[in-house]
Amino acid sequence: MLGPVRAWHGERELDLGSPQQRVVLTTLLLRRGRPVTVGELVDAVWGEQPPSAAISVLRTYVSRLRKILEPGEKAGENGEGPPRVIVSVADGYLAEVPDEALDLGLFERRVAEATRLRAADDDSTAAELLHAALAGWQGTPLAGLPGPLAESERARLGERRLAALEMRLDLDIQLGRHRDVIAELTSLTRDHPLREQLCRLLMLALYRSGRQAEALAAYRTTRRILVSELGIEPCAPLRELHDRILAADASLEPTPAPAPERRQPHRTEDAPAVPAPAPTPPAAVGRPAQLPADLPAFTGRHRELQQIRALLPEDGTSPKTVVIGAIGGMGGIGKTTLAVHWAHEVAHRFPDGQLYVNLRGFDPTGSVMPPGEAIHIFLNALGLSPQRIPAQLDAQAALYRSTLARRRVLIVLDNARDTEQVRPLLPGAPGCLVVVTSRSQLTGLIVNDGAHPLTLNPLTAAEAHGFLSRRLGAARVAAEPKEVDEIIEYGARLPLALALVAARAATHPDFPLSAVADELRDSHGSLDAFTSSDLSTDVRAVFSWSYEALSAPAARLFRLLGLHCGPDISTPSAAALVGLPPRDVRGSLAELTRAHLLTEHRPGRYALHDLLRVYAAERVHAEETRQERDQAVERLLSWYLHTADAAYAILAPNRRRVPLDPPPPGCRPLVFTTHDQAVDWCEAERSGLVAAVHRAAASGLPGIAWRLPATLWGFFYLRSHLQDWLDTTRTGLAAARSDHDQRGEAWVLRDMSNALRSLGRHEEAISTLQQSLVLCRKLGDLEGRVSATANMGDIYLQAGRPEKAVEYTRRALAIHRALGSDAWGVGIGLANLGDAYQRLGRFDDAVDCLEEAMTVLRASGNRWVEGVALDILGTVRHRLGRHDDAIEAYRQALEAHRDIGNRWGEGHTLGHLGEVLLTVGQAERARATWLRALEIFGELDHPDAEHVRRRLGRLDERPPGPAHGSGGTPGPGTDRDRKAASPARP
Fold it and tell me: What secondary structure does DSSP assign to 715-747, as a single string?
């Protein structure tokens, strides 16, 4: 294949047929034992314009190839055995040809082995393998084959050959064969004038052969072609080599081959030995030791230290490559402290010295250090006089790398601004360790230079305690544990903030720590408690250096985040905050993340450190007008409201919607197409949604404050977030009352009664619902009245008063039927009435109601209430002794609950299923079912978890052996005291 496609059977060459037939074989061989579909083969042979009989012709090609490749065999459809070389699989074929039978496979194995040997410093053997690999090429690969596949593969294989050739030429030069390769390289650069690696190798070979002027001329030729044809300058390695040749860099000279062992002439015992020449002493060089002092009170960071220790070989040997560790994090997080501490720990492993520089990437002076200045500092420390240092940065960097070659030096680049500032300061040869600290992520350094990233987070609570103990003394910290916890909380576990507080406390050893905690409490919401006369340790100033380096859009987003109320923010909510489309804020979010002003703690979700949130709030009040702040808050809260309403329409599609005003300009709510999308969004944003309700009430937006919990009704119900539900409805109720909005008050009272009922606080639920009924009568709100009436029946049902439940439920059903338009209300009413009847022992009436409910619910596609009705039907069948029918009803109920994500309903139905399983003597299945119910209620933090625990406890107390109806048939008011999440009315 590395030339014209040919094949042999033993010593005899085979006639592979027409070029198109050879394309079929080539396509199969290139897949290396993996199937190729008929469609792919057609595309390979004919491209986008196959003949009408392409598939028939293709099968003919395959049949002929089988006969050619298996001469003497009767393979195929009409033969005695299946084909062994080209095998039919599904809609296509595969070629079962071992790699060692392909010249391409042999080439690839030799190149891979040569690459491994080169990495192991066995250059000589690697070069021999590459010579052998390249000798197997017989001209242009796949020569003479037509079609798009052959064309693209020729280009790919040609590139593989050139890459292997470049590696072989590089090794030949390193092995001292530079004169031998000049002619070959001259021809190659003429054939491939844009291939910069070939030019680099030719320049090096010429220079090592004493032809410096020709080496520089080769560079000028390549540069002229690149500039004229592509409009670009040569790559950095080529420019660097040019500068080093100009500077006559001694490290470019070939390394002399090892001298043969000196053999002593034969001598007698009396003849004196010929003394060996004394070794030439190395040139005197500087051994710098520039590390700052280690922090005596350093503590914690055990996980991070373990991670960076893993960068160096455990056996204490020198690293085989340049090792780069990039320590990132927000200002004040302790990057420099950690870097210097670890540098002292491993300094003994770098006998040629330690270099340190503060690059002033984020600095009170605002003067970022140019990389050339840092190189000057390092070269002077390494013993080079200023006169030897060239003026151009590329030449300086080349000299710096040459000076570090064959040395083992530890380099700490502190407070870097970006990758461009760091890259010229990286060594070029193995044996050195570079530790970089920066508030930027230095993505380019990680991607292109193989840096190992380590992002520092705030201290853990235990580390923060240890931090204060080291500075204030363990006894003082142990004496006031509550106050220490407060100090850590207000300092947000940021090392710089805690260090400032500790310094203040240390200067007043007689003051109790409660006084420090009181000061922090009084200044909570500002950074005044963390100020310092030294700007480098003033938290506000430290944050400002990162903030001032931002672009204008990123700075605006950062300060507006000070208005956000939740613990984290997503891209769409950030877009609403600034009033832009999501695509226009992704760049700003990425910039803030790179600057460690935001943390992407989950994909697409960003969080601010507590003190950075305070700083952002300070900036937004200082730089944005009151109107701009109010508009940003309204956009964000409206986005939450309208997106929650979009989820509400999916989660409860048959239920009455909350009336909303249109969203303000710049607010772009999300839309959902599936149930899972809606639930997942609500779950991801739950903390933010709850906080948004309180922010709306505090910001003078009462309409949002009561409507937002109303739109979350379905989510709170399905996921059983009962405390959040009650909390938000209370805030919404207060907001509606403050705005004298009686319609909103009536609505939120109904929702609050639902939350109270779900918490088992039935008397409070009844009292709250009665207030809603009074308001609905006053407003003439018939829909509100019937909803409240139906909900009253459901509360009485849950309270164990089925007679009252029947009264209210029948009243609500009569109104629903008179209105003739609410399938949701009729379906729920019939299901609840059936439940009330079964609790009263009126099983025939219960079955009639439930069957009618199922008809209504299935006609309207209401899977939510269908699951509830099936659960109740299972209980009726259980109580009638129809256990198999009960199990089937519960199974169907579980399917319905799971279809809509009704976790609460799923837990209840599992509880009821366990009861019937126990009744029929399947105690272990009952146990497994109840354990699953307990897991669900535990995840929801639902009070019914205790009810399931009691069931399991009774099961454990049972004597071993089969059950003989020991569970009994549940009587009224026992098993159904807590019904499966029957959704109330709006």
Answer: HHHHHT-HHHHHHHHHHHHHHHHHTT-HHHHHH
